[in-house]
Design goal:
The chain has 2 domains: about 5-110, Tetrapyrrole methylase, N-terminal domain (Cobalt-precorrin-4 Transmethylase, domain 1, 3-Layer(aba) Sandwich), CATH 3.40.1010.10; about 115-220, Tetrapyrrole methylase, C-terminal domain (Methyltransferase, Cobalt-precorrin-4 Transmethylase, Domain 2), CATH 3.30.950. By secondary structure, it is α/β, with parallel strands linked by helices. The protein has helices spanning about 20-30, 40-45, 65-75, 95-105, 115-125, 145-150, 165-175, 200-210; strands spanning about 5-10, 30-35, 55, 80, 105-110, 130-135, 155-160, 180-185, 195-200, 215-220. The chain has 8 helices and 10 strands. The chain binds S-adenosylmethionine. S-adenosylmethionine (SAM) binds next to α5, β7, β8 and β10.
Amino acid sequence: METMNLYVVSTPIGNLEDITLRAIRVLKEVDLILCEDTRTSRVLLNHYEIKTPTTSFHSYSTSAKADAIVRELKSGKQMALISDAGTPGISDPAYTLIQTALAEGINIIPIPGASAVLAALVASGLPMDKFLYLGFVPAKKGRATLFESIKDEQRTIVLYESPHRILKTLGQMKEILGDNRTIVVARELTKLHETFHRGTLAQIYADFTTHPPKGEMVILVGPKDFA
Ligand code: SAM
């Protein structure tokens, strides 16, 4: 029987150079690339002259689509899954497909690379021996409950947030976690305007009130007793 493989391939989070040689080789060798958005990934694929056919697989893809992909994998087609940026599955589509594929005996092969969580963490200056990744801050319900749950946390917490909600989020965090909690906001990682804002919740909130930040961002909250 032929080996049935689904490669989960990390792609850059901004800087096109942040992709591994193995990722490029795999993307060239597979029969089909499953993209979160084929038009977004076209920029990367063209840059590396990857001519492999693509099809879309995103968060709105039905379970029928996942089943159809798994049928093709079982017939021997080699496939790679990529998202718009970073590591598939990390606040990006992948999980349901990986579950379905594993249940059908398909090998899941990770091709590691960029992810905003780790890039932000390693440069934050906050403890990174242990950390808690909580994905996106909820847009509406559950925000206060989330912030309450991290109030006494002794590990560094990593969250994703959109620039439209950052002020609201920091304001609410300040109310619940207090003015003096250390935070870092990592913006535009690996890009031209990469910036790390380090300070207390009160300082960063005041700074962002006068200079609203733009671009993609990661919020890191220091452990409760971090000075
Ligand atoms: N799969 C991606 C990863 O591995 O990091 C995350 C995808 S998620 C849909 C997009 C969010 O990740 C953004 O809203 C932002 O919070 C964060 N992010 C992605 N790229 C970033 C970058 N270059 N700088 C800062 N944050 C980034």
